[in-house]
TrEMBL record:
InterPro entries: ATPase_P-typ_cyto_dom_N, ATPase_P-typ_P_site, ATPase_P-typ_TM_dom_sf, ATPase_P-typ_transduc_dom_A_sf, ATPase_P-type_domA, Cation_Transport_ATPase_IB, HAD-like_sf, HAD_sf. It comes from the Eukaryota. The keyword Translocase applies. It is found in: Membrane. Residues 1-23 form the signal peptide. It comes from Corethron hystrix. NCBIfam families: ATPase-IB_hvy, ATPase_P-type. This is HMA domain-containing protein. The lineage of its organism: Eukaryota, Sar, Stramenopiles, Ochrophyta, Bacillariophyta. Belongs to the cation transport ATPase (P-type) (TC 3.A.3) family. Type IB subfamily. The chain crosses the membrane at residues 292-313, 319-336, 522-542, 548-581, 885-901, 907-925. It is a multi-pass membrane protein. Keywords: ATP-binding, Membrane, Metal-binding, Nucleotide-binding, Signal, Translocase, Transmembrane, Transmembrane helix. GO terms for cellular component: membrane. Residues 200-266 form the HMA domain.
């Protein structure tokens, strides 16, 4: 049978392109050109520009030019149109005001400068690096200073702008200046309060995000916009966070720019839940219809492609034309995405597939074109479906957010239903069986059991009695109602904190993700250029040779697609973060999850970490006869009442248990907490001290203490107790006390398993040496692994010493030492500096707010066993990423080898690419628990 005319193929191809309009929104690209503007920069602004800093600054100076097109100003100021240069060695603030008053009003200008990659709105490219450091240029924080001359030259658009308040010595001579320092705060660079108040962070839900390959395209759209300072993208929740100056660009304008490239962006209003918004869009009729059409098109494409494969059967050659039907249904979505990407002046996998399909059609390789269209489309759908599993796992966490609350009216005891956002501290609430607890609070009445698995991952419900603490988002699964009093709003509840941490976890990209992105940006252009040369140069040596190499070039184009490599890391991080989050371990981003897998040293705090942090007062011995036991307990209650330290709470509770009046708290003045030592304050005119031996040694009271009292206190300490003293200025030490804290039941097992995993474990505590050694014996830590009586600064210094030689900003793929990171785990304010300094800071969930803020990982339910599981999960994530990268690279290498030996065609290349993409996706998803009810699965089922 004769082959149909090529016109039929072209007709079907154009019909396919016409179908693209069915998918598009019909928005036209904004072609408004930016007009060049006068760009005047100081040396400091220029330096920030060359270093890539991003900030909004205002340069205030005398105008040296009317406009970039009307005048030129030379370095020496010899141009007739330029104003005279003011030659002064030093200009004081009052002289500046005088100069401003004398200068013509039209010569005083303020230029807002957007530093970063040059001023895009003015069309002026980035400055070349200046010869820095310059002599006599100093930096103190954000304040810059210089001695005498400050001169900056910028030659662009055939215009030279000069800024000088002093003499015109050329910058290139790098002269040494001798005049006194002149601060730049008001002289050169200022930023008004109004401008600072216009910097806001907006959120956009971008439904067009399917994987991390869209990140470069979105960055290229949003980052160049005037007024945009910073952008971060959460692929999991499909949220784009944009820091921008609302006086220069509104969030609606940013939304419009994204929608011009068909990203389907919507502004995220304040108070809306991003993941909830995702679910709302996911269940909408519009999205369901779009997904149905997409799946139907892919299915029809597969049917036609399968029929076209019959063309390899003898005398069924004409079946190849069914492949055009496959292209008709499978190609339009690819072409649409490619066109949108090209409109943004970028290339991606869709562009490569677009060129491969068009090239195959030109060569009349219809079956090959159909294979590319169908296999790439089906791979895209399957990859989206697999990735959605991890996204849904994180979405389940957000579902713990309560919607309504039952408020009890104090006057009538009636119950009214209000929005959970309307609950305030002090409200009495009724929680019926089966209802969610709307916010954090305390039980007033009733006995029931509460399911806290959504926060802690524990499958067994917890019994709640009067005075028991309740966490928002947990569920009353008992048979009795609970009456509670709210202690926090829903925004400050444990559930809200958990949701915020989960939502922001993806913003912090790991070094490995960045390395893979950099490699893919180099890999794709190099291979793409090679494919282009293969498709063009051989035509010079003959038609047959050109056609053969053209097909090889198209196959190489498929190989240039980096999809499998790009998604090999983010999908693994998402699965790991979701798995840990479902078990009550919140990791603030993939970078910290990777760092967990590289931990080689662990430093543990004692109180509240190795121990339960629930002290009980064992001894309180009065020293001397100046004050009675009751009076001393009154001092203790007054000073320790405002503190949140576990030991302070124990002392305060013991005073209350003995009937001590706590009204003396109102008489406390100048209450001061001394980190690592204790507390002191004025009580009824007397200065009272409560703390450890270090405090009383510093104030010269301990040396005056009777030796028998010292021996008794030392004996308490040797038995493992935490000891301290109470003193009064002018009197001395008036009491000694001993409190005990129980070691966590899982602490010994965790320490042993950490050691077996090759991790060096140490204890850093501010408690006494004897108390630390006693706890160390119980958990299996030798004496040389214990550092006691440490101040917060000393803890910080020890952590920094342990970090010597670590490479936190380097991917594990490039690091020689695979496990050299330092992990610090603590719960108190005293631990915050060390937590922030460590490569990985882990905070216990019941710890101080500052500790939670400065940490990278949070153990929601204070179970130390989960610290070990988190490290093991980090290691498994690293192993999985290595496997994924190896799979993606080996699949490319295999196709390259087959191309070299002329054994690969288009459909094999695309099948290899899609297969590798699916394999790495599924390999990463295996980190998720297999059970549908994740909170009922044992934690160790997904830890190898």
């Amino acid at each position: 049978m004769t082959s149909p005319s090529p016109d039929l193929a072209l007709l079907l191809f154009f019909l396919s392109l016409f179908q693209i309009s069915l998918f598009a929104d019909g928005n036209s690209r904004d072609t408004t050109a930016f007009q060049p503007t006068c760009f005047l920069a100081s040396l400091l602004g220029n330096h920030a520009l060359s270093r890539g800093h991003k900030a909004n600054i205002v340069v205030k100076s005398f105008a040296l030019c009317e406009s970039p097109r009307s005048s030129k100003t030379s370095l020496e100021g010899q141009n007739d149109s330029s104003p005279n240069i003011i030659n002064k060695d030093i200009i004081e603030d009052d002289q500046i005001k005088t100069l401003e008053n004398k200068a013509p009003s039209d010569k005083i200008v303020q230029y807002p400068l957007q530093t970063g990659e040059g001023c895009r709105s003015s069309g002026i490219p980035t400055n070349p690096p200046l010869p820095l450091p310059l002599p006599n240029i100093a930096s103190r924080g954000r304040r810059k200073s210089h001695r005498g001359n400050l001169h900056n030259i910028r030659r662009n658009l055939d215009t030279t702008f000069a800024l000088s308040y002093c003499s015109t010595a050329p910058l290139e001579k790098r002269n040494d200046f001798s005049p006194p320092i002149v601060e730049d705060d008001e002289l050169l660079v200022t930023q008004t309060d109004a401008q600072r108040n216009t910097i806001v962070q907006s959120q956009l839900h971008v439904d067009g995000i399917c994987c991390s390959s869209e990140i470069p395209t979105i960055n290229s759209i949003v980052t160049p916009l005037r007024g945009v300072n910073k952008i971060s993208i959460n692929v999991t929740t499909k949220i784009v966070y944009v820091d921008h100056d609302k006086s220069l660009i509104s969030v609606e304008e940013i939304e419009k720019k994204l929608n011009l490239c068909n990203f389907r962006a919507t502004v995220q209003k304040d108070g809306e839940n991003p993941l909830g918004k995702k679910e709302e869009l996911h269940n909408s009729d519009r999205k369901n219809k779009r997904e149905f059409l997409a799946k139907s098109s892919v299915a029809l494409s597969g049917v036609f492609w399968t029929i076209s494969m019959m063309s390899y059967i003898p005398r069924w050659h004409n079946a190849q034309y069914f492949a055009l039907g496959s292209v008709l249904f499978g190609f339009p979505p690819i072409a649409l995405k490619a066109i949108n990407t090209l409109r943004c002046k970028r290339t991606d996998a869709n562009c490569l597939m677009f060129f491969a399909v068009v090239g195959a059609l030109i060569l009349r390789e219809f079956t090959e074109a159909a294979a590319v269209s169908f296999l790439f489309s089906i791979g895209d759908i399957l990859e989206r479906r697999a990735t959605r599993k991890a996204r849904d796992a994180l979405s389940e966490i957000v579902s713990i957010r309560p919607e309504v609350a039952n408020v009890i009216d104090d006057a009538t005891n009636g119950v009214s239903i209000i929005s959970a956002e309307g609950v305030s501290p002090g409200h009495r609430l009724l929680v019926r069986p089966g209802e969610k607890i709307p916010c954090d609070g305390v039980v007033l009445k009733g006995v029931s059991v509460v399911d806290e698995c959504s926060l802690t991952g524990e499958s067994r419900p917890t019994k709640k009695l009067p005075n028991s603490n309740l966490s928002g988002g947990t569920i009353n699964v008992g048979t009795s109602p609970l009456v509670m009093i709210a202690t926090a709003t829903i925004e400050n509840s444990a559930a809200a904190r958990l949701i915020r941490m989960v939502e922001q976890a993806q913003a912090n990209r790991s070094p490995t993700e960045k390395l893979v992105d950099r490699f893919s940006k180099l890999y794709t252009p190099v291979v793409g250029l090679s494919a282009f040369l293969m498709c063009t140069i051989p035509w010079m040596f003959g038609k047959d040779l050109g056609k053969r190499w053209f097909l090889i070039g198209l196959t190489t184009t498929i190989v240039a697609c980096p999809c499998a490599l790009i998604i090999s890391t983010p999908v693994t991080y998402v699965a790991g973060l979701a798995a840990l989050a479902k078990r009550g371990v919140i990791v603030k981003g993939g970078a910290h999850l990777e760092a967990l897998g590289r931990v080689g040293k662990v430093a543990l705090d004692k109180t509240g970490t190795l121990t339960q942090g629930k002290f009980k007062l064992l001894h309180l011995d009065v020293v001397g006869s100046k004050y009675s036991r009751k009076e001393i307990l009154g001092m203790v209650a007054a000073l320790e009442g405002p503190s949140v330290h576990p030991l302070a709470n124990a002392l305060f509770q013991a005073a209350q248990n003995e009937g001590t009046e706590v009204s003396a708290i109102n008489n406390v003045e100048e209450h001061t907490i001394v980190k690592g030592e204790g507390v002191h304050a004025y009580l009824d005119g007397k200065k009272v001290y409560i703390g450890n031996r270090r405090l009383f040694t510093r104030i010269n009271m301990y040396s005056k203490l009777d030796s028998s009292v010292k021996e008794k206190v030392d004996h308490w300490s040797e038995l493992g107790g935490t000891v301290g003293y109470v003193g009064v200025e002018g009197v001395g030490i008036v009491a000694a006390y001993c409190a005990a804290d129980e070691v966590r039941t899982e602490a010994q097992n965790v320490v042993e398993e950490l050691k077996e995993s090759g991790i060096a474990v140490s204890m850093l505590t501010g408690d006494s040496t004897s108390a630390a050694i006693a706890v160390g014996k119980q958990v299996g830590l030798p004496y040389n692994s214990i550092q006691a009586e440490l101040l917060p600064e000393e803890k910080l210094n020890l952590v920094q010493e342990m970090k010597v030689g670590t490479t936190k900003d380097t991917s594990f793929l490039c690091s020689k030492k695979k496990r050299d990171f330092v992990l610090m785990c603590g719960d108190g304010i005293n631990d915050s500096p060390a937590l922030a300094s460590a490569d990985v800071g882990v905070a216990m969930g019941a710890g101080s707010t500052l500790a939670l803020e400065t940490s990278d990982v949070t153990l929601v339910d204070n179970n130390l066993d989960k610290l070990l599981k988190s490290i093991l999960m980090g290691r498994k994530v690293i192993r999985t990423i290595k496997q994924n990268i190896a799979i993606s690279m080996l699949s490319k290498l295999a196709v390259f080898m087959l191309v070299a030996f002329k054994g690969a065609n288009l459909w094999f290349a695309i099948a290899s690419d899609v297969g590798a993409m699916l394999i790495v996706t599924l390999n990463g998803m295996k980190l998720l628990p297999k059970s549908r009810k994740l909170h009922n699965a044992p934690f160790n089922q997904f830890i190898v």
